Amino acid sequence: MDIIIEPCGRNTAPAIALAAFTAVSQGKGDEVMTILPSDHSIVDIGLFRMKVQQAEALAQQGKVVLFGIVPTRAETGYGYIKVDSSTVRKGADCSFDILQFTEKPEIDLAEQYVASGDFLWNSGIYSIRADRYLELLQEFCPEIYHACTQAYQNAVSDMDFIRVAAEPFENCPSLSIDHAIMEPLCGVSKSAAVVLPLALEWSDLGSWLSLWEHRDKDQCDNVVGGDVLLSNTENLLVLSRDRLVAAVGVENMVIVDTPDALLVASKDRVQDVKHIVDKLKQSQRDEYIKHREVYRPWGNYDLIGHGDGFQVKQITVNPGAKLSLQKHQYRAEHWVVVKGVADIQRGDERFTVEQNQSTFIPLGQIHSLVNSGNDELVMIEVPSGGLSR
Questions:
Q1: φ, ψ for residue 65, nearest 5 deg
Q2: Is 73 exposed, middle or buried (0-12, 13-18, 19+ CB in 10 A)?
């Protein structure tokens, strides 16, 4: 299995391009990719697998196949696809040509769409041959194609991870597959892309409201996760990972506590969180650029404390994983092992540090660390000198 790591988010069109380049480099360019968002709920897995097989047959013919969900209500949180009912392909591979895409509509327009019977929800699930995707991307969005080509050609392998080059990918336009390929393709050829209807229970869990809808509720319609205490509340979504969250006498709210930030929003205005994101971006806040907790192929680190001239990290190293040999020009480091055993190289020395023991890495000293045990290695790192996250 290959896991491709993006240096930054650039929407779905560049991400799919990296997957397609990987397939082509492995001699699998003529194989079909099925592109699945990670935050969807699909109940009837058997039916979905059958539809994926149908989509594969269509994609092998060179078509771009988009899965459309048969709508059950007027929903303003989803995009809509207008199908050409005159082009229905009867039988097991029932599919339609696509007439238009519509972004999330207002409620009145959504009601008209559902009543007409000519619209499906845009699931964002696609099937397409890898080589065909790159061909279309080069035709309709050459800027993305060339940026991803450079990023992939300069990628480095790190165990199961493929790390693409940061600079060309950061300069890549940020576009979805809908805007980069599907809309221009449908404008040129109505039959080159088709939509395959799915009549099953489906939800895009990309919003807090949809998550509330699909989680188990208490007798007051509250959904909680983590360490949460409630008193006299109704219709809440409250999620916490690291600390106690208490709510008293409130209703119809979303409260989400993460290591990076605390979100408090009315359920009927939670979509407006995008305005906060815009403000974070405009202010160049750290919360928009990076997370407190960062994952690496060897494990992760969490910036658990920082202030003027100091910071404290909790570093977790997976069993058998290794931190690369390195040295720091501007800081020294103190390591305290709180769980497991660390095999350490410090200059020409090699030694182990066990639970409740510590060591010091001087400024400019080469060093590395290996967790050769069967359990996670957890240690606290306190640097001195030049600091960076």
A1: -110, 125
A2: exposed
Please check whether residue 348 lies inside any domain of the structure. yes
What's the alpha-carbon Rg for the chain, to the nearest Å? 25
Q: Are the C-beta atoms of residues 312 and 381 closer than 8 Å to each other? A: yes
How far is it, in rounded angstroms, from Cα 193 to Cα 27?
A: 25
- CATH number of the domain within which 33 lies: 3.90.550.10
| Number of compact structural domains in the chain | 3
Average pLDDT value for the chain: 90
The reply to whether 361 and 223 lie within a common domain is: no
Regarding pTM above 0.85, the answer is: no
User: Which residue range(s) make up the domain with 338?
Assistant: 293-385
CA distances from 316 to 162, 257, 335, 345, 376 (A): 21, 22, 12, 18, 7
Average pLDDT over residues 274-297: 85
Q: Does one domain contain both 33 and 84?
A: yes
Average pLDDT over residues 89-103: 72
Task: Say what the pLDDT of residue 297 is.
Answer: 82
pLDDT, position 389: 42
The reply to whether 67 and 153 lie within a common domain is yes
Cβ atoms of 339 and 299 within 8 Å: the answer is no
The long-range contacts involving 318-322, CB below 8 angstroms and separated by at least 24 positions, are 318/371, 318/376, 319/371, 319/373, 319/374, 319/375, 319/376, 319/377, 320/371, 320/372, 321/297, 321/370, 321/371, 322/298, 322/368, 322/369, 322/370, 322/371
Note whether 265 and 312 are same-domain residues.
no
Residue type, 327: K
Q: State the Cα torsion 362-364-370-375 to the nearest 10°.
A: 50
